[in-house]
Specification:
- By secondary structure, this protein is an alpha+beta fold.
- It has 4 domains: 3-90, Homeodomain-like (Arc Repressor Mutant, subunit A, Orthogonal Bundle); 101-147, Arc Repressor Mutant, subunit A, CATH 1.10.10; 160-333, no CATH class; 336-554, no CATH class.
- The chain has helices spanning 48-61, 67-72, 79-90, 101-114, 118-123, 130-147, 165-184, 188-204, 211-219, 240-245, 257-260, 265-271, 336-343, 352-364, 384-399, 407-414, 436-441, 458-463, 487-497, 508-519; strands at 3-9, 15-21, 41-43, 417-423, 430-431, 446-449, 466-471.
- The protein has a 4-stranded antiparallel beta sheet.
- The radius of gyration is 26 Å and the shape is elongated.
- It binds a DNA duplex through helix 3 and helix 6.
Length: 555
DNA sequence: AACTACTTCAACCGCACGTAC
DNA sequence: CGTACGTGCGGTTGAAGTAGT
């Protein structure tokens, strides 16, 4: 937008800008434009004089007809600006100052009920404006995220709130329409988001199980990017039961996150009673029911940056289907759910410093011994990589008769629970949450680290920085070594080699991994050993976006 | 004191919707 | 019915303030 800006000294000493709106910014139909006689509309902070004029006008003419203000007064403000000023600052009975505890509580409850419906919330908070509430909420999100606190306190059961069918339906339509539009113009840079979305959707929806593959192929080489997918989730989520029954879709996602990130009982306790529509469940959760603790839905998680953790929900429509996850500008994704993990100590987790030390040390000098049998190589949000690995998994698991129909048994012998950790975007600090004690004593667990730098986009936060740490093999254990015969290990290590940390190294392992993954090892046992990348080279933390991904999709 | 990083919040923007013509 | 206009809403921006170094 191009404005001719003139700085003037206002009566109260403030500098304000006067903008001559260019034709391009004329905002046709918006009611915020110059009216006739080429009048100059002022923008920026209001002066007390302007306030006085507006107050005067409203006294005489009442609220409304805001565009007439400019006509009938000397105020060079557009109607919109007047309305906003009046509504947010000048109208009587406005409450100023910090929100009281009661108000805060009410906001939280209302947000849980209605999402980002600031205006509706404001109706229930006399003297407060939607803008105020919105700002408060955004600030709150940041604050709580920083503190590792759940967005909603445990006593707020978001999933208890009902949403009308009409609302849900309309949003589904909207989402679908936008998805279609965006799909047509989807580009490479943000395609990852779609991958992730679709991956998740496909994972949850039997009918869409192949969607990600299909789209992945179709998307290659397409044009401009779209960021919209960062804000959307699949419109439909199945019931926990469905998810569980489709557990085979997540053979690599056997994380035991909830075990590692305990949450107050009263919060968990309600979970099992929730209706399917009441919660969003990550694929990572599907493995839990058989493990006993009824926790399948208590920790609401959504892959990608809008992950819900410990009752932390996206800022809007916290309902069935998570129809549209609207995020404020700062994009929670920057830290995303992992921030919750990294900062929310579980009863078993050590102080962060310990974690940081140990993990940082690992990054600096990753001992090969820690990279182990990676049957459990898993991540909830690894998206594209998950898809790849999933393929390999399917092949091997089929051979190994890892039937999800008997998950408890199969997992106990062949897989493991998973700690998911993340390196923090800034400074490459890696913070690990989880069962520290176990990790201390159980030196034989495996760990594959894929640190990456988060970017602004959603997927990168969903994918990037995941340190996939597999652990807790029940009994079966292997000597410490890197299993370079495994495609997933190869893939991971190769990926690291390919510039994930700004160091381009041997690329042969990638080819090997892909050969194994795609070429097929029907037995699942005859992987060719390729010792190209052991991951022992010290790595700096660099950026590794989807653009750095090995070109597997072109194969 | 100067600089930087971060936070807060007022204001702007684009969009959607309703209504008048 | 189509268009213009007015209004409201939610997302985003950027200046001012604050804290840290």
């Amino acid at each position: 937008m191009s404005y001719t800006t003139t700085t003037v000294d206002s009566d109260d000493g403030m500098h304000s800008s006067i903008h001559n709106e260019s034709p391009a910014s004329d905002n046709i139909g918006n009611g915020c434009r110059s009216r006739g006689k080429g009048s100059v509309l002022k923008k920026g902070p209001w002066t007390s004089t302007e306030d006085g004029i507006l107050i005067d006008y409203v006294k005489k003419h009442g609220e409304g007809n805001w565009n007439a203000v400019q006509k009938h007064t000397s105020l060079a403000r557009c109607g919109k600006s007047c309305r906003l000023r009046w509504a947010n600052h000048l109208r009587p009975n406005l409450k100023k100052g910090a929100f009281s505890q009661e108000e805060e509580q009410l906001i939280v409850e209302m947000h849980a009920k209605m999402g980002n419906k600031w205006a509706q919330m404001a109706e229930h908070l006399p003297g407060r404006t939607d803008n105020e509430i919105k700002n408060y909420w955004n600030t709150r999100i940041k604050r709580r995220q920083r503190a590792g606190l759940p967005l909603y306190p445990p006593e707020i059961h978001v999933e208890d709130f009902q949403w009308s069918e009409e609302y849900t339906k309309s949003n589904i339509i909207r989402v679908e329409r936008r998805r279609h539009q965006d799909f047509l113009q989807l580009g490479n840079s943000k395609a990852n988001v779609l991958f992730d979305d679709l991956n998740f959707a496909a994972s949850l929806l039997p009918a869409a199980s192949d969607l990600s593959d299909l789209v992945a192929c179709n998307m290659l080489g397409t044009g401009p990017s779209s960021s919209r997918y960062e804000s959307y989730m699949p419109p439909i989520l199945p019931s926990p039961k469905q998810i569980w029954e489709s557990g085979s879709r997540f053979p690599m996602c056997s994380s035991n996150i909830k075990h590692e990130f305990q949450y107050p009982e009263h919060f968990q306790s309600t979970a099992s009673q929730k209706t399917p529509r009441s919660c969003s469940i990550s694929p990572c959760d599907v493995d839990h029911p058989p493990y006993g603790n009824q926790q399948s839905s208590d920790m609401m998680m959504i892959p990608d940056s809008h992950t819900v953790m410990y009752g932390m929900l996206p800022t809007s429509k916290p309902s069935f289907g998570a129809v549209k996850l609207e995020l404020p500008s700062f994009q929670y994704s920057e830290t995303s759910a992992f921030d919750q993990w990294k900062t929310t100590p579980s009863p078993d987790s050590p102080p962060h410093s310990d974690l940081l030390d140990s993990v940082d040390a690992y990054i600096q000098s990753p001992p090969s011994s820690q990279v182990e049998e990676s049957d459990c190589f898993s991540s909830c949000d690894t998206g594209l990589l998950d898809m790849l690995l999933h393929e390999a998994k399917i092949k091997t698991s089929a051979k190994h008769s890892l039937l999800m129909s008997s998950p408890k048994k199969s997992f106990s012998s062949t897989t493991c629970t998973t700690n998911v950790t993340q390196n923090v975007p800034r400074g490459g600090t890696l913070i690990k949450s989880g069962e520290y004690e176990d990790s201390q004593k159980d030196l034989t667990r495996s760990e594959i680290t894929i640190p990456m730098q988060l970017s602004a986009g959603g997927i990168s936060s969903a994918f990037a920085g995941n340190v996939v740490k597999t652990e807790e093999f029940d009994q079966v254990w292997e000597p410490k070594r890197i299993d370079t015969t495994r495609p997933d290990v190869l893939l991971a290590s190769s990926w690291l080699d390919q510039g994930c940390f700004g160091i381009v190294r041997d690329t042969s392992s990638m080819s090997d991994a892909l050969a194994l993954l795609l070429g097929g090892d029907d037995t699942g046992n005859s992987y060719v050993t390729v010792g190209s990348s052991s991951g022992q080279t010290p790595r700096g933390v660099g950026s590794c976006g989807w653009t750095n991904m090995p070109p597997v999709w072109s194969l």
